Protein backbone atom coordinates (compact mmCIF):
# COMPACT_ATOMS: atom_id res chain seq x y z
CA UNK A 1 0.00 0.00 0.00
CA UNK A 2 2.88 2.41 0.79
CA UNK A 3 4.34 1.95 -2.69
CA UNK A 4 0.94 2.64 -4.23
CA UNK A 5 0.62 5.84 -2.21
CA UNK A 6 4.12 6.96 -3.23
CA UNK A 7 3.29 6.36 -6.89
CA UNK A 8 0.02 8.23 -6.40
CA UNK A 9 1.77 11.34 -5.05
CA UNK A 10 4.34 11.28 -7.84
CA UNK A 11 1.75 11.24 -10.58
CA UNK A 12 -0.93 13.59 -9.20
CA UNK A 13 0.09 16.61 -11.29
CA UNK A 14 -0.04 14.59 -14.49
CA UNK A 15 -3.34 12.97 -13.54
CA UNK A 16 -5.00 16.31 -12.72
CA UNK A 17 -4.14 17.57 -16.19
CA UNK A 18 -6.18 14.70 -17.64
CA UNK A 19 -9.29 15.01 -15.49
CA UNK A 20 -11.10 17.26 -17.98
CA UNK A 21 -10.38 14.66 -20.66
CA UNK A 22 -11.87 11.97 -18.43
CA UNK A 23 -15.03 14.02 -17.86
CA UNK A 24 -15.34 14.72 -21.60
CA UNK A 25 -14.65 11.06 -22.53
CA UNK A 26 -11.74 12.32 -24.62
CA UNK A 27 -9.01 9.98 -23.33
CA UNK A 28 -7.83 6.91 -25.15
CA UNK A 29 -8.56 3.57 -23.41
CA UNK A 30 -5.08 3.20 -21.89
CA UNK A 31 -5.03 6.74 -20.50
CA UNK A 32 -8.56 6.36 -19.13
CA UNK A 33 -7.63 3.11 -17.38
CA UNK A 34 -4.56 4.73 -15.84
CA UNK A 35 -6.52 7.73 -14.55
CA UNK A 36 -9.31 5.57 -13.12
CA UNK A 37 -6.77 3.31 -11.38
CA UNK A 38 -5.11 6.34 -9.86
CA UNK A 39 -8.43 7.75 -8.62
CA UNK A 40 -9.10 4.52 -6.71
CA UNK A 41 -6.10 5.15 -4.45
CA UNK A 42 -5.89 8.97 -4.41
CA UNK A 43 -8.48 10.89 -2.40
CA UNK A 44 -7.03 14.28 -3.41
CA UNK A 45 -7.43 13.65 -7.13
CA UNK A 46 -10.88 12.18 -6.55
CA UNK A 47 -11.93 15.40 -4.80
CA UNK A 48 -10.48 17.40 -7.68
CA UNK A 49 -12.52 15.32 -10.15
CA UNK A 50 -15.67 15.95 -8.12
CA UNK A 51 -14.93 19.70 -8.06
CA UNK A 52 -14.38 19.82 -11.82
CA UNK A 53 -17.57 17.84 -12.39
CA UNK A 54 -19.57 20.41 -10.42
CA UNK A 55 -17.84 23.25 -12.24
CA UNK A 56 -18.66 21.65 -15.59
CA UNK A 57 -22.31 21.32 -14.59
CA UNK A 58 -22.42 25.00 -13.60
CA UNK A 59 -20.91 26.01 -16.94
CA UNK A 60 -23.30 23.78 -18.89
CA UNK A 61 -26.24 25.44 -17.17
CA UNK A 62 -24.95 28.97 -17.86
CA UNK A 63 -26.49 30.99 -20.65
CA UNK A 64 -24.04 31.82 -23.46
CA UNK A 65 -22.64 35.33 -23.41
CA UNK A 66 -24.55 37.65 -25.79
CA UNK A 67 -22.68 39.00 -28.81
CA UNK A 68 -22.69 42.85 -28.85
CA UNK A 69 -24.91 44.29 -31.57
CA UNK A 70 -22.13 46.51 -32.91
CA UNK A 71 -19.46 43.80 -33.00
CA UNK A 72 -19.48 43.41 -36.81
CA UNK A 73 -19.11 47.16 -37.48
CA UNK A 74 -16.44 47.46 -34.80
CA UNK A 75 -14.33 44.71 -36.37
CA UNK A 76 -14.79 46.17 -39.86
CA UNK A 77 -13.65 49.60 -38.65
CA UNK A 78 -10.53 48.17 -37.03
CA UNK A 79 -9.66 46.13 -40.12
CA UNK A 80 -10.24 49.11 -42.40
CA UNK A 81 -7.96 51.19 -40.19
CA UNK A 82 -5.23 48.58 -40.42
CA UNK A 83 -5.50 48.42 -44.21
CA UNK A 84 -5.49 52.22 -44.64
CA UNK A 85 -2.54 52.79 -42.28
CA UNK A 86 0.79 52.91 -44.20
CA UNK A 87 2.95 49.95 -43.28
CA UNK A 88 6.33 50.86 -41.90
CA UNK A 89 8.08 47.85 -43.47
CA UNK A 90 9.29 48.77 -46.93
CA UNK A 91 7.78 46.78 -49.73
CA UNK A 92 5.03 45.20 -47.61
CA UNK A 93 1.51 45.36 -49.03
CA UNK A 94 -1.46 45.22 -46.64
CA UNK A 95 -3.59 42.19 -47.32
CA UNK A 96 -7.18 42.60 -48.45
CA UNK A 97 -9.72 41.27 -45.97
CA UNK A 98 -12.20 38.86 -47.49
CA UNK A 99 -15.78 38.38 -46.25
CA UNK A 100 -14.94 34.91 -44.94
CA UNK A 101 -12.12 36.43 -42.87
CA UNK A 102 -14.56 38.87 -41.29
CA UNK A 103 -16.93 36.03 -40.52
CA UNK A 104 -14.12 34.06 -38.91
CA UNK A 105 -13.24 37.09 -36.78
CA UNK A 106 -16.84 37.39 -35.64
CA UNK A 107 -17.02 33.71 -34.72
CA UNK A 108 -13.73 33.91 -32.87
CA UNK A 109 -14.75 36.99 -30.89
CA UNK A 110 -18.13 35.54 -30.01
CA UNK A 111 -16.52 32.43 -28.62
CA UNK A 112 -13.90 34.19 -26.52
CA UNK A 113 -16.21 34.87 -23.59
CA UNK A 114 -17.17 31.24 -23.09
CA UNK A 115 -13.78 29.74 -23.90
CA UNK A 116 -11.91 32.16 -21.69
CA UNK A 117 -14.14 31.19 -18.78
CA UNK A 118 -14.47 27.45 -19.25
CA UNK A 119 -11.05 26.40 -20.54
CA UNK A 120 -8.80 28.13 -18.01
CA UNK A 121 -9.43 25.41 -15.37
CA UNK A 122 -6.76 25.83 -12.68
CA UNK A 123 -3.99 26.40 -15.24
CA UNK A 124 -4.66 30.08 -15.95
CA UNK A 125 -1.67 32.12 -17.04
CA UNK A 126 0.79 33.01 -14.29
CA UNK A 127 2.01 36.05 -16.25
CA UNK A 128 -1.11 38.05 -15.38
CA UNK A 129 -4.04 37.96 -12.98
CA UNK A 130 -7.32 38.92 -14.68
CA UNK A 131 -9.69 40.76 -12.35
CA UNK A 132 -11.89 42.08 -15.16
CA UNK A 133 -14.60 39.41 -14.88
CA UNK A 134 -15.09 40.36 -11.21
CA UNK A 135 -14.94 44.12 -11.77
CA UNK A 136 -17.49 44.04 -14.59
CA UNK A 137 -20.13 42.38 -12.38
CA UNK A 138 -19.49 44.26 -9.13
CA UNK A 139 -22.35 46.76 -9.51
CA UNK A 140 -24.83 43.93 -10.07
CA UNK A 141 -23.82 41.38 -7.42
CA UNK A 142 -20.45 41.60 -5.65
CA UNK A 143 -20.67 38.12 -4.13
CA UNK A 144 -21.45 36.52 -7.49
CA UNK A 145 -18.71 38.57 -9.18
CA UNK A 146 -16.17 37.34 -6.63
CA UNK A 147 -17.36 33.74 -7.08
CA UNK A 148 -16.89 33.99 -10.85
CA UNK A 149 -13.34 35.21 -10.36
CA UNK A 150 -12.23 32.50 -7.96
CA UNK A 151 -13.97 29.80 -10.02
CA UNK A 152 -11.93 30.93 -13.03
CA UNK A 153 -8.81 30.12 -10.99
CA UNK A 154 -9.92 26.69 -9.79
CA UNK A 155 -11.19 27.66 -6.32
CA UNK A 156 -11.56 24.94 -3.73
CA UNK A 157 -12.80 25.59 -0.19
CA UNK A 158 -10.22 24.96 2.53
CA UNK A 159 -9.46 25.61 6.17
CA UNK A 160 -7.12 28.46 7.19
CA UNK A 161 -4.48 25.88 8.16
CA UNK A 162 -4.76 24.13 4.80
CA UNK A 163 -4.44 27.50 3.04
CA UNK A 164 -1.12 28.08 4.83
CA UNK A 165 0.14 24.70 3.64
CA UNK A 166 -1.13 25.35 0.11
CA UNK A 167 0.76 28.64 -0.31
CA UNK A 168 3.69 28.57 2.15
CA UNK A 169 5.65 31.28 0.31
CA UNK A 170 2.87 33.87 0.46
CA UNK A 171 2.65 36.27 3.39
CA UNK A 172 -1.00 36.46 4.40
CA UNK A 173 -3.47 35.85 7.22
CA UNK A 174 -7.14 34.84 7.29
CA UNK A 175 -8.09 35.79 10.87
CA UNK A 176 -11.51 34.69 12.17
CA UNK A 177 -12.51 38.32 12.74
CA UNK A 178 -11.35 41.64 11.30
CA UNK A 179 -11.46 45.15 12.74
CA UNK A 180 -14.97 46.57 12.65
CA UNK A 181 -16.78 43.26 13.16
CA UNK A 182 -16.15 41.42 9.88
CA UNK A 183 -16.43 37.67 10.49
CA UNK A 184 -14.65 35.06 8.37
CA UNK A 185 -17.03 33.07 6.16
CA UNK A 186 -14.94 30.95 3.78
CA UNK A 187 -11.33 30.38 2.77
CA UNK A 188 -10.35 29.14 -0.71
CA UNK A 189 -7.19 27.83 -2.32
CA UNK A 190 -6.59 28.97 -5.92
CA UNK A 191 -4.14 28.25 -8.73
CA UNK A 192 -2.70 31.16 -10.73
CA UNK A 193 -0.85 29.26 -13.43
CA UNK A 194 1.90 27.37 -11.63
CA UNK A 195 1.62 29.49 -8.50
CA UNK A 196 -0.78 28.93 -5.57
CA UNK A 197 -3.11 31.65 -4.38
CA UNK A 198 -5.56 32.21 -1.54
CA UNK A 199 -8.89 33.99 -1.16
CA UNK A 200 -11.24 34.57 1.76
CA UNK A 201 -14.66 36.13 2.33
CA UNK A 202 -15.94 38.10 5.32
CA UNK A 203 -19.33 39.42 6.38
CA UNK A 204 -20.46 42.23 8.69
CA UNK A 205 -24.24 42.22 9.07
CA UNK A 206 -24.67 41.53 5.36
CA UNK A 207 -21.76 43.73 4.22
CA UNK A 208 -19.39 41.76 1.99
CA UNK A 209 -15.59 41.92 2.07
CA UNK A 210 -13.12 39.65 0.27
CA UNK A 211 -9.36 39.17 0.26
CA UNK A 212 -7.17 37.69 -2.48
CA UNK A 213 -3.48 36.86 -2.19
CA UNK A 214 -1.20 35.98 -5.09
CA UNK A 215 2.43 36.07 -6.11
CA UNK A 216 3.45 39.52 -7.43
CA UNK A 217 3.04 39.67 -11.21
CA UNK A 218 3.98 42.25 -13.83
CA UNK A 219 0.45 42.53 -15.19
CA UNK A 220 -2.93 42.71 -13.49
CA UNK A 221 -5.77 42.89 -15.99
CA UNK A 222 -8.66 45.24 -15.14
CA UNK A 223 -10.45 45.36 -18.49
CA UNK A 224 -11.96 48.79 -19.13
CA UNK A 225 -11.57 49.86 -15.50
CA UNK A 226 -8.88 52.37 -14.49
CA UNK A 227 -6.15 51.65 -11.98
CA UNK A 228 -5.14 54.51 -9.65
CA UNK A 229 -2.43 54.94 -7.01
CA UNK A 230 -3.65 55.15 -3.43
CA UNK A 231 -2.35 55.30 0.13
CA UNK A 232 -3.48 52.80 2.78
CA UNK A 233 -2.25 53.89 6.18
CA UNK A 234 1.46 54.58 5.67
CA UNK A 235 1.79 52.46 2.56
CA UNK A 236 1.43 53.23 -1.12
CA UNK A 237 -0.64 50.86 -3.22
CA UNK A 238 -3.15 51.03 -6.02
CA UNK A 239 -6.88 50.58 -6.46
CA UNK A 240 -9.69 50.18 -8.96
CA UNK A 241 -13.05 51.77 -8.13
CA UNK A 242 -16.36 50.47 -9.49
CA UNK A 243 -19.23 52.45 -8.01
CA UNK A 244 -18.96 52.18 -4.23
CA UNK A 245 -16.65 49.16 -4.48
CA UNK A 246 -12.86 49.34 -4.31
CA UNK A 247 -10.31 46.66 -5.16
CA UNK A 248 -7.20 47.80 -3.27
CA UNK A 249 -3.76 46.22 -3.67
CA UNK A 250 -0.65 46.40 -1.48
CA UNK A 251 2.41 44.48 -2.65
CA UNK A 252 5.45 43.36 -0.70
CA UNK A 253 8.35 41.28 -2.12
CA UNK A 254 6.46 37.97 -1.80
CA UNK A 255 2.75 38.75 -2.02
CA UNK A 256 0.16 41.00 -3.62
CA UNK A 257 -2.57 41.56 -1.01
CA UNK A 258 -5.93 42.51 -2.55
CA UNK A 259 -8.98 43.61 -0.58
CA UNK A 260 -12.39 44.04 -2.19
CA UNK A 261 -14.67 46.20 -0.04
CA UNK A 262 -16.69 49.38 0.24
CA UNK A 263 -14.40 50.72 2.97
CA UNK A 264 -12.44 53.96 2.80
CA UNK A 265 -8.70 53.42 2.42
CA UNK A 266 -7.95 56.26 4.84
CA UNK A 267 -10.09 55.08 7.78
CA UNK A 268 -11.19 51.44 8.21
CA UNK A 269 -9.08 49.80 5.52
CA UNK A 270 -5.59 50.29 7.08
CA UNK A 271 -6.50 48.11 10.08
CA UNK A 272 -8.01 45.47 7.78
CA UNK A 273 -4.92 45.41 5.58
CA UNK A 274 -2.59 45.20 8.58
CA UNK A 275 -4.47 42.13 9.78
CA UNK A 276 -4.49 40.22 6.47
CA UNK A 277 -1.09 41.43 5.19
CA UNK A 278 1.31 41.24 8.13
CA UNK A 279 4.34 41.57 5.85
CA UNK A 280 3.41 45.16 5.05
CA UNK A 281 3.77 46.23 8.69
CA UNK A 282 7.54 46.74 8.28
CA UNK A 283 7.33 48.43 4.89
CA UNK A 284 8.15 52.12 4.75
CA UNK A 285 6.50 52.39 1.37
CA UNK A 286 6.21 50.21 -1.69
CA UNK A 287 5.37 51.25 -5.19
CA UNK A 288 3.45 48.52 -7.00
CA UNK A 289 5.32 47.14 -9.98
CA UNK A 290 8.79 48.44 -9.04
Question: Explain this structure to me?
Answer:
- The protein is of the alpha+beta class.
- It folds into two domains: 2-60, no CATH class; 128-282, 3-Layer(aba) Sandwich (Protein Transport Mog1p, Chain A), CATH 3.40.1000.
- It has helices spanning 2-16, 19-23, 29-41, 43-60, 71-84, 99-118, 132-137, 142-152, 160-166, 269-276, and strands at 128-130, 156-158, 177-178, 182-192, 195-204, 207-214, 219-221, 228-232, 235-242, 245-251, 256-261.
- Strands 2, 3, 4, 5, 6, 8, 9, 10 and 11 form a nine-stranded antiparallel sheet that branches. The protein has a two-stranded parallel sheet with strand order 1-7.
- It is globular and about 60 Å long.
- The termini are far apart.
The oligomeric status of these chains comes to: single chain
CATH class of the largest domain: Alpha Beta
- Structural class, from secondary structure content? alpha+beta
How would you state the average pLDDT, rounded?
A: 78
How would the global form be characterised?
A: globular
List low-pLDDT spans.
1-7, 87-95, 112-126, 282-290
Helix content: 40-55%
Number of beta-strand segments: 11
Provide the β-strand percentage band: 15-25%
Order of helices and strands: HHHHHHEHHEHEEEEEEEEEH
Q: Tell me the count of domains.
A: 2
Biggest sheet layout: 9 strands, antiparallel
Helix run count = 10
In CATH terms, what is the fold-level topology of the largest domain?
Answer: Protein Transport Mog1p, Chain A
Instruction: Please tell me how large the radius of gyration is.
Output: 22 Å
Please give the CATH architecture of the largest domain: 3-Layer(aba) Sandwich
Span of the ends, CA to CA:
50 Å
Amino acid sequence: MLRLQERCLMSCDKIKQQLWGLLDHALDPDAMAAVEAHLQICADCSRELEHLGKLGSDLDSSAPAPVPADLWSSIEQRLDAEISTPNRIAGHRPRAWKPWMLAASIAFAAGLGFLGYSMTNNRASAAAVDFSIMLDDLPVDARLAFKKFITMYGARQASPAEAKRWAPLLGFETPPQLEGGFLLQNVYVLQFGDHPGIAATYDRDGEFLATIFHKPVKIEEFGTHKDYPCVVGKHRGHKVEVGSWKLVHLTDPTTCHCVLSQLDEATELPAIMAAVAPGTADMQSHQHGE
